TrEMBL record:
A Pfam family hit: PRMT5
Active site (UniProt): E464 (proton donor/acceptor), E473 (proton donor/acceptor)
Lineage, top ranks: Eukaryota, Viridiplantae, Streptophyta, Embryophyta, Tracheophyta
InterPro entries, A to Z: Arg_MeTrfase (IPR025799), Arg_MeTrfase_PRMT5 (IPR007857), PRMT5 (IPR035075), PRMT5_C (IPR035248), PRMT5_TIM (IPR035247), SAM-dependent_MTases_sf (IPR029063)
Site (Critical for specifying symmetric addition of methyl groups): F355
Protein family membership: Belongs to the class I-like SAM-binding methyltransferase superfamily.
Organism annotation: Cynara cardunculus var. scolymus (Globe artichoke)
Binding residue positions for S-adenosyl-L-methionine: Y352, K361, Y362, E420, D448, M449
Keyword list, A-Z: Methyltransferase, S-adenosyl-L-methionine, Transferase
One GO term of the biological process aspect: regulation of DNA-templated transcription
Domain PRMT5 oligomerisation: 496-662
Name the record gives this protein: Protein arginine N-methyltransferase
One GO cellular component term: cytosol
Domain PRMT5 arginine-N-methyltransferase: from-to ranges: 324-493
Length: 664
């Protein structure tokens, strides 16, 4: 039974699981917990002599720390070997004798196994033990249990945390298994980010290796937690003793924990409840304290963790629903797209249609044109002077419309040239002008602005040739060509634009790029609606272009070296690449952009850009990260090159624009 309704959220975080102890009566375990309101169980798969409890908690430095409590004898079910361990089978018979290490697959239906059970691998295993027998036993058991899980088509398995600080052999075995997995995701319980990091590096960042976080009562700093949102966290295990008690005696969570759970929901991370009930309730059943009135008979049937589940459901349901725009963009989250090439290619009708829905963008342009018109022509001259305004790159006409509305709003007279090089968009422009009766005001020019011979000079040049990284759709090169027909004191809207960049952890995007198995894709910048990522340091400005630019030595080549410092309490991080944005000053105080700290609200024309790194860069806590980026210009193309030089050096990406470039 999902946690409830939350408008727009159809992600896995609607489902809540519960960690169960060993019990060979799987149908009973499942029915109790599913009838008790949980969607799935995290249950031990194998028969194991030893049972260990693993607790994780966050230490002062913000890392996760594992505490192992005592080893406890588990009363094995009657029909199996109580002391079963693989090494007890003598070597000669090992290959031929198969002792039962798990119950039958027939006890549940295939769909029950795959939809409702996450396997929990025996927690005693220690694949890096100094004890040869324990190590070998551990390896056999791990492989046996994972093979069984795969046979059952479970969606995931929860592996125990590595025991010590070294996890080389454990990672080697998991990596071997991952190479052969096709239908299951291995979820790794971690003690600290460092340990997790070395584990996944040893497993070559395998895309089916995920992580389950333990949430205990003390939490590390926000920056330290933030790192995990760029990692493949699949589940968060919330222990019952993490809950505090509300005024009515029900379990609830601290404000910080509530916020953390909201973020887990937002990032589609599933909650798993674990532990024994620690709240003694005398009546009622609502964790949120609402007026439910179950009687005692019902109480007796209730799942022992029901009040905790109700509380998690309550938090889920009280989450702010996603705004309409976000819901519309769900399908674009973390989906890599090649940037448009509006200069080299002709945009399609559908693309124009999407642009034109973004009313916020045109409102900003209208405000900018209004201010420029008022500055250019005084009220006294308004009825006698006509302003020549050229929309360069007019598309299907929305900036023409915004400019005419600005003229009407300010009482200024306008003569408009609409210059567009896409002949298909020009067709629509003609019908728009006719439809709106603008024939006496608007002249359509079907030409590339760089070679148009204008019959007169413009007072105002309006353009929107901006990409997610500002200059990446070649606005500088196009406007260099158009400035020939701007009066010396003329105004360009936009008057400048600046790109911004910041390092990010995003294992999802890194793995998606890696899937292509070639250099080209690691040397390409992508447009992407960033979602599962950790922004590691505030963004910094990269390249600025100002218009008009009449400087005789002007060049559109650029180079920038940036030094990023991660906040002290973040801990070590991994950088998979750089997220890029832009901000444009249209006119004076009117701007538009997507840089997160100043982004124009509710504008959706641009997603950020992502510059990947061929190999993720590990940045130790306190170390700076040095990044270089070049904007290079040739006769037929413009491209970026980028690299990291500290703490380690990466290769220079996209040398000579060999993989990714924008055609002139
Ligand atoms: C990003 S679209 C913007 C279209 C429109 N202004 C809008 O806001 O919907 C850029 C437009 O500029 C046109 N364009 C790009 N470079 C151009 C050039 N050198 N000369 C003329 N048009 C150009 C493209 O064909 C495209 O229609």
């Amino acid at each position: 039974m999902p946690l409830g309704d939350n408008l727009g959220d159809k992600s896995d975080s609607r489902y809540c699981g519960v960690e169960t102890e060993f019990n060979d009566d799987m149908p009973h375990v499942l029915s109790c917990n599913v009838n008790g309101g949980f969607d799935f169980v995290v249950a031990p798969l194998g028969f194991s002599k030893l049972k260990m409890f693993a607790f994780t908690k966050f230490d002062k430095t913000g890392c996760l720390l594992i505490h192992y409590l005592d080893v406890e004898k588990l009363q094995a079910a009657e029909h199996m070997e109580p002391g079963y361990r693989p090494s007890l089978i003598d070597k000669a018979s090992r290959d031929s004798t198969v002792l039962p290490f798990a119950g039958s697959d027939l006890v549940l239906s295939p769909s029950q196994w795959s939809s409702h059970v996450v396997g929990k691998i025996s927690s005693w295993i220690d694949l890096d033990s100094e004890d040869d027998i324990l190590r070998v036993d551990s390896e056999i058991t791990l492989k046996q249990e994972l093979a069984w899980a795969s046979h059952l088509s479970l969606q995931a398995c929860l592996l125990p945390t590595p025991k010590g600080t070294s996890c080389g052999n454990y990672a080697r075995c998991v990596n071997q298994i991952l190479q052969n997995l096709n239908n299951m995701q291995a979820v790794e319980l971690t003690d600290s980010w460092e340990l997790w990091n070395s584990f996944r590096v040893l497993c070559e960042h395998h895309s089916q290796l995920s992580i389950a976080l333990d949430v205990l009562s003390s939490l590390p700093s926000a920056n330290s937690i933030g790192r995990w949102f760029g990692e493949p966290v699949k589940a968060a295990i919330v222990h019952t003793d993490t809950f505090i008690t509300n005024a009515r005696g029900y379990p609830c969570l601290s404000k910080r924990h509530q916020n953390l759970l909201s973020r887990f929901f937002y990032y589609s991370i599933q909650i798993v409840l674990s532990g024994k009930p620690v709240h003694k309730l005398s009546g009622g059943n609502s964790a949120a304290g609402a007026d439910h009135s179950d009687n005692y008979a019902q109480q007796a049937q209730r799942h022992p963790l029901r009040s905790y589940l109700d509380y998690v459901g309550y938090l889920y349901q009280k989450m702010e629903p996603l705004p309409e725009q976000e819901r519309f963009e769900l399908g674009y989250r973390d989906f890599l797209q090649s940037p448009l090439q509006p200069l080299m290619d002709n945009l399609e009708a559908q693309t124009y249609e999407t642009f034109e829905k973004d009313s916020v963008k045109y409102i900003q342009y209208q405000r900018a044109v209004s201010k420029a018109l008022v500055d250019r022509i005084s009220d006294e001259n308004a009825s006698t002077t006509t302003v020549v305004l050229m929309v360069v790159g007019a598309g299907r006409g929305p900036l023409v419309r915004a400019s005419l509305q600005a003229a009407e709003e300010t009482g200024r007279k306008l003569k408009v040239y609409a210059v567009e090089k896409n002949p298909n968009a020009v067709v629509t422009l003609h019908s728009l002008v006719k439809l709106e009766g603008w024939e006496n005001v608007v002249t359509i020019i079907s030409s590339d602005m760089r070679c148009w011979d204008a019959p007169e000079k413009a007072d105002i040049l309006v353009s929107e040739l901006l990409g997610s990284f500002g200059d990446n759709e070649l606005s500088p090169e196009c406007l260099d060509g158009a400035e020939r027909f701007l009066k010396p004191d003329g105004i360009s809207i936009p008057s400048s634009y600046t790109s911004f960049i910041q390092p990010v952890t995003t294992s999802k995007l890194y793995n998606d790029v890696k899937l292509h198995k070639d250099l080209l894709h690691f040397e390409t910048a992508y447009v992407v609606k960033l979602h599962r990522l950790a922004r590691l340091s505030p963004s910094q400005s990269v390249f600025t272009f100002t218009h008009p630019n009449y400087s005789p030595n002007r060049s559109n080549q650029r180079y920038k070296k940036l030094r990023f410092e991660m906040p002290n309490d973040t801990g070590s991080t991994i950088v998979h690449g750089f997220a890029g944005y832009f901000d444009a000053i249209l006119y004076k105080d009117v701007h538009l952009g997507i840089e997160p700290s100043t982004a124009t609200p509710n504008m959706f024309s641009w997603f950020p850009i992502f510059f990947p790194l061929r190999s993720p860069v590990y940045v130790k806590a306190g170390s700076p990260l040095e990044f270089h980026i070049w904007r290079c210009c040739g006769n037929t193309k413009v491209w970026y090159e980028w690299c990291v030089t500290s703490p380690t050096s990466s290769p220079i990406h996209n040398s000579n624009g060999r993989s990714y470039w924008v055609g002139l």
